[in-house]
Design a protein that fits this description.
Oligomer: heterodimer
Number of strands of chain A: 1
Number of helices of chain B: 10
Number of strands of chain B: 1
Distance between the termini of chain B: 75 Å
Helix content of chain B: 40-55%
Structural class of chain A: mainly alpha
Subunit structure (chain A): The main subunits of the menaquinol:cytochrome c complex are a Rieske-type iron-sulfur protein (QcrA), a cytochrome b (QcrB) and a cytochrome c (QcrC).
Shape of chain B: elongated
Number of domains of chain A: 1
CATH topology of chain A: Cytochrome Bc1 Complex, Chain C
Strand content of chain A: under 5%
Largest interface: A-B, 83 and 78 residues
Order of helices and strands of chain B: EHHHHHHHHHH
Strand content of chain B: under 5%
Order of helices and strands of chain A: HHEHHHHHHH
Protein name (chain A): Menaquinol:cytochrome c reductase cytochrome b subunit
Number of helices of chain A: 9
Helix content of chain A: over 70%
Largest sheet of chain B: none
Radius of gyration of chain A: 21 Å
Distance between the termini of chain A: 46 Å
Radius of gyration of chain B: 34 Å
InterPro entries (chain A): Cyt_b/b6_N (IPR005797), Cytb/b6-like_sf (IPR027387), Di-haem_cyt_TM (IPR016174)
CATH superfamily of chain A: Cytochrome Bc1 Complex, Chain C
CATH class of chain A: Mainly Alpha
Function (chain A): Component of the menaquinol:cytochrome c reductase complex.
Organism (chain A): Mesobacillus persicus
Chain lengths: 224, 251
Amino acid sequence: MLNKIYDWVDERLDITPLWRDIADHEVPEHVNPAHHFSAFVYCFGGLTFFITVIQILSGMFLTMYYVPDIKNAWESVYYLQNEVAFGQIVRGMHHWGASLVIVMMFLHTLRVFFQGAYKKPRELNWVVGVLIFFVMLGLGLTGYLLPWDMKALFATKVTLQIVEAVPLLGPYLKTLMAGSADIVGAQTLTRFFAIHVFFLPAALFGLMAAHFIMLRKQGISGPL
Amino acid sequence: MHRGKGMKFVGDSRVSAERKPFIPKDYSEYPGKTEAFWPNFLLKEWLVGAVFLVGFLVLTAAHQPPLERVADPTDTAYIPLPDWYFLFLYQLLKYSFAAGPYTVVGALVIPGLAFGALMLAPFIDRGPERRPSKRPLATGFMLLAIASVFYLTWESVVQTDWEAKEKMGAISDVEIDKASDGYQIAEANTCLSCHGGELGGASGPSLVGTGLTAEEISDIAVNGQGDMPAGIFKGTDEELQIMSEFIAELE
């Protein structure tokens, strides 16, 4: 049955080359931990992607309860964590996953750096990878404000002070992020929510697509 | 560059007929055994992923995600601190060469140079060598950067009074005045054995923030409600009045 459906679609859209791009390739020995245990360093990129998927899914479930306004944000998080069945687990996955994704990405970056895997012809993929790193840091920064508790508010105030210290553009950047020149409040929360849930994930998806397309196009780097 | 019509492919594939530079060599040319990604290698990847997921869920179940009390902008005594992976940047801004009039140095110049160099690494480190030992400058600068990040994070953690910080952020429980007459009367009438020493509830419900009036509370204390039998309160009417008002005011 599945084969018939596949054939029906393939007949019309020629999806077999797509399948080949995604799954039909050989994995060389030097990246395979089954042959050399030290090759586990090649797992860090995949694990980063895995946690990113966890973040996306848990984040989607969090938005079912979260309310991005200063009166209800904290209440909704408190309710989610203490009243909703498994709410603590969902929030826990998103909270700890945010830290873990940074750790894994850091390890992946170091692996690629110390192996010199960014060298010609893979320069562009490195640049895209560093941009993904920045987007992830941005997601961590904006997500930190959303529970609207003490540490969230005051960490954001500090961040905005640092942004303000940027010469010339500083005050404008701060107003853009906070929604006001001197109040960190309702506007700030909704802006950070929009950035965290729409703007940065959109950028992340585009960059990750580019990262993986380039990886499949060039193949993984050879042994040292 | 070839576009559109002139493109030629090998047979019916999507592989270009023209050999392009930089296309990696065929895996059959690598030494050792290759393995098909689908399904052999993917199965192993899933096993690694499953083990990882179990560990992750154990962490999640064992440690409740932290939530401090609701944001209060008027509390200026609170010690602000960013999430742990920004601590090194935050710590950098505390040093005199990167603070006050030089904040630009700490907030923009140093991180800008470091992250800029990271992003442009392939264009700075252009040699053909890949081994770390054959790229002393690249390796050296990266080790220096890692050491700095670890040192700054460590310093920041050491310099923070985590106990005081936790206290300031804790979701505040209602302060119960245990010396008050109302509390003493409640204790004397064994209310605490079911409603808890902090009146936050135990086998019985919480008495904090009930939303009931003093009259309603007096009635329950004398006549009972639900699982609570009648006649638990054995004091005078005056004591009943004092205790009920005390409980009604808890929120």
